[in-house]
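User: Here's a chain of 316 residues. Predict its fold as tokens.
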Amino acid sequence: MKMILVSRRHDRTWAREIKPRQLVWLSLCVLGISFVAGGLSVRWLLAPMPTPTAATASLDQTTVNTWQRTLDTQAAQLAGLKQATRQEISTLAKRVAEMHSRLLRLDALGERVSTVARLDKGEFDFSSPPALGGPEVPAAVAGTTIPALSVEIDRLSNIVASREQQLGILSSLLSDRQIRDEEFLAGRPVKGGWMSSSFGQRTDPFHGNPAWHSGVDFAGRLGSDIVAVAGGVVTWSAERSGYGQMVEINHGNGYTSRYAHNQKNLVSVGDVVKKGQVIALMGSSGRSTGPHVHFEVYKNGRVVDPASYVYRTLRH
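Assistant: Prediction complete.
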């Protein structure tokens, strides 16, 4: 067998004759080298992992410690967040309970005020939500899902606000009605007694001649109560010629009332009096024949028959 060798530059060649015996030995050498390399490779793969050095072990422990500290910090933060959440939920639950109680009080108060004010049944129904309406308009921004507790708080807040609004309107109506009741001139100026002289022409009790009587007289027991027929401001509380001790009250809207021949006046000029308030005690001062009250009513400066106001009733 002949073997030819060529250089890398392909500029030189060598030719050598190989005998069969030499070829066998060459093949055996190549096979031997291959077996040796394979054995070394298997031994390297099956060999146990080398024991880590002290430096490597220290590095791994440092990493573990760092991660442990991070986990501990995160666990503490999570525990604090849970505690804060529990406290917030407890606060919200208390707020819901308070709003429920507040709503019950508002409903009870509204029903009571409606009854006292004698409003039409159903005009202010505090047992049901107020009537609402309007076209559906989509919200500009869709919010995220709200927890049920927050939804309940918002619902109760809206109901309480509605009840407060209704109660405010009702209170305003009631106040207006009370003002009208106070200003409404009606009733008798005495708690007891009887009408002893009417308004208009009569025979004068002192000289028997025809005379004009500008009011009505209510006779009664000496010292009995004289009351205001409407609320107002006292514009006179002293003796006046022919009237004796007299009280005059301005009721507004052009109305004025007078109470004369009193034994004692119990109010002073500038006092604000209420309807039915005791303002004097019955007497016989001035031009009088006995205990009684001389009651006069003026409308826009002109005297009118008080009888129409004595028997007047208030209708809402």
